[in-house]
Design goal:
Layout (H helix, E strand, L loop, with lengths): L2 H15 L4 E5 L6 E6 L2 E11 L2 E7 L9
Antiparallel strand pairs: 1-2, 2-3, 3-4
């Protein structure tokens, strides 16, 4: 992912969730992955997928049972 893509997706997520604390950090190990944070709290991963010339981004967030209590 390029820094321009990171910026575009970050702005999209901030607008979609109405939260200016969302930020993305590029993964050091996978060039098509970024880590998603709210403030300093890690909340999930974002993967870039390119298939037949079309690009999409997949946001993954796990919710642990203990967090629901």
């Amino acid at each position: 992912m390029t820094l321009q893509e990171i910026e575009k997706v970050t702005n999209y997520l901030k607008n979609k969730f109405k939260n200016d604390s969302i930020n993305l950090k590029l993964s050091k190990s996978d060039e098509d992955m970024a880590e998603v944070y709210i403030g300093s709290e890690f909340i999930g991963t974002l993967y870039k997928d390119e298939d037949e010339g079309e690009i999409s981004y997949d946001f993954n967030m796990s919710i642990i049972d203990i967090d629901l209590k």
